[in-house]
Design a protein that fits this description.
The chain is mainly α. Helices cover 60% and strands 3% of the residues. Helix 7 packs parallel to helix 9, helix 8 runs parallel beside helix 11 and helix 12 packs across helix 15. The radius of gyration is 23 Å and the shape is globular.
């Protein structure tokens, strides 16, 4: 079989645009969510934000008080906390108009945060704006910082994914990271957003990196060192985002190795230069493990009232999560707020259709081994949550949420797009049209979700028309301006997916094919 030649690097302007344009789209979508979501309306945001505020002022962990559960952190003036800020949480019939501003001076000067001992890396990345602002403005500023970090990771994933000799389906695979639940999380003070964004960068980067160690042509135009650098940064952020990050790293890298093949993996480990990058990743991983094992963030023994199945058996936890997988998938696709803002069933269908197009095509139009690879990724997305929760259920009870699995669910679309790009030559002519159609479905779903979530906070269950005549709450700049902005940026997402795919298709049309394998860029390690 003839393999595509190593792709020549495109002009510098094109390389810059392949990062800047997706960065702009992902960042703007995240920032719009950061403005549209009432303060602390994202799950656990009050705990994460107060930890970040205290940590950047030197209180890395906090302290304990008698009769107070969880670690206590001190809050400076301008950040006093009152539960009235969340008066609407878990009450879908109550708008955000009842909320008291964070730091209005009437709350307490401390907060008992259940994430007080979490790994500090994420909180330094997003906590620094609280040194410049206070009150609600500080939370929005920290959300924007989180959006920029997440957008940078996703933009690099887009660049790496598009750098292969055969990449025409890859922009579409990464575009799923712009689904509303994903950008909602990067636009919040919650490490879950950076966690899945780093995982997407790791999926795309590892696949491309391993391609540089294969025989033959078809290797990416990004240099091996550039790919290593991106993979190393994504890996370090992933392992330090949350306690299970090292396990997520092993799962993602293992599935990528299985996808590309053993020869490329063996050559990576027999190339001396690899060990500098592997060493950097190992240092980040050891820091994460050391922090966690020293009491950093693995949950203490929960009480029976905290969650279902506390002190349950492995089989109870495993079976429960497996049985409720459809519920977790719904959460991952779009279930907002403190589990008080689901979308109507009809609203999910554009996303389901978009996902089905990419995954079904990958199953029916690729080679037998590729079907096996994609099946392994899909099964991992189903079984890993069940196995993890089964292992910990005796200590934590059932605490898994759908958003925790985003790093696996988005891996399905990235791997499916990679397999389609490599194998589905018969579908090459439809890649551009599929990018426009699927991009439009994702964008449409995003606008629907954004508007419906705003309805919940602006008027709750009152008539939608009252958003214009009698709004009970307004986000900064007003709900109408934010919705219009989201619609415009969503059109930018459609254009990004469609035009990037068209550019790649035209570029691939002029790349010659070769019969002879090209030499490795680096000699294997000797001795």
């Amino acid at each position: 079989m003839r393999a595509p030649a190593p792709a020549p690097a495109p002009p510098r302007r094109a390389r810059v645009l392949l990062f800047v344009l997706p960065f702009s789209v992902f960042a703007l979508l995240g920032i719009l969510w950061s403005l549209a979501s009432p303060v602390f309306s994202v799950p656990d945001e009050n705990a994460h934000a107060t930890k970040a505020i205290a940590q950047v002022r030197g209180q890395i962990i906090g302290y304990t008080l008698p009769d107070v559960r969880h670690i206590v952190v001190d809050l400076p003036e301008g950040y006093h906390y009152t539960q009235d800020t969340l008066c609407y949480a878990k009450h879908p019939d109550v708008s955000a108009g009842c909320a008291v501003d964070f730091g209005d001076g009437n709350g307490q000067a401390w907060f008992n945060t259940w994430v007080g001992a979490y790994n500090p890396v994420y909180y330094y990345l997003v906590g620094w704006p609280s040194l410049l602002f206070d009150g609600n403005a500080s939370i929005i500023a920290m959300r924007i910082a989180s959006s920029l970090v997440g957008a940078a990771l996703l933009a690099w994933a887009f660049l790496a994914a598009s750098s292969g000799a055969r990449s025409r389906w890859m922009p579409l695979g990464v575009a799923f990271a712009a689904a509303p639940m994903s950008v909602y999380l990067i636009g919040a003070v919650n490490p879950n957003g950076v966690e899945f964004a780093a995982a997407v960068a790791l999926w795309a980067g590892t696949l491309r990196l391993l391609e540089t160690f294969r025989d033959g042509g078809g290797r990416p135009w990004l240099s091996r060192n550039a790919l290593w650098a991106g993979v190393a940064v994504a890996s370090i952020l992933l392992v330090n985002a949350r306690a299970l990050g090292p396990l997520w790293l092993l799962i993602v890298v293992g599935l990528c190795c299985f996808a590309v093949g053993w020869k490329a993996v063996r050559r990576l480990f027999t190339t001396g230069a690899s060990y500098w990058w592997l060493g950097a990743i190992a240092v980040g991983g050891l820091f994460s493990l050391g922090w966690t094992l020293s009491g950093g963030s693995l949950s203490n023994q929960a009480e029976a009232s905290d969650a279902p199945f506390v002190n349950g058996t492995f089989l109870q936890g495993f079976a429960y999560v497996l049985r409720t997988t459809p519920w977790y998938l719904q959460q991952a696709v779009g279930f907002f707020g403190w589990f008080d803002t689901p979308l109507p069933v009809w609203a999910y269908w554009p996303f389901v259709a978009a996902f089905a197009v990419v995954v079904v095509l990958a199953f029916i139009a690729t080679r037998r081994r590729s079907v096996l690879v994609l099946s392994a990724v899909v099964l991992s997305a189903i079984l890993v949550p069940a196995l993890v929760q089964g292992y910990s259920v005796h200590q934590t009870g059932i605490i898994w949420q759908g958003r925790y699995g985003l790093f696996l669910y988005l891996g399905i679309t990235v791997v499916a797009a990679w397999l389609l790009s490599r194998d589905a030559g018969a579908l090459d002519q439809v890649a551009t049209r599929a990018a426009w159609v699927v991009g439009a479905l994702l964008a449409g779903y995003g606008v629907i979700a954004f508007f419906l979530v705003l309805v919940r906070y602006v008027v709750a269950d009152d008539p939608v028309a009252e958003m214009l005549t009698a709004p009970q709450w307004q986000p900064p700049f007003g709900w109408l301006a934010l919705t219009a902005g989201y619609a415009v940026v969503s059109l930018g997402l459609v254009a990004l997916a469609g035009l990037a795919t068209r550019w790649i298709v035209r570029r691939e049309a002029v790349v010659p094919e070769v019969d002879e394998p090209s030499p490795l860029a680096e000699a294997p390690l000797r001795g």
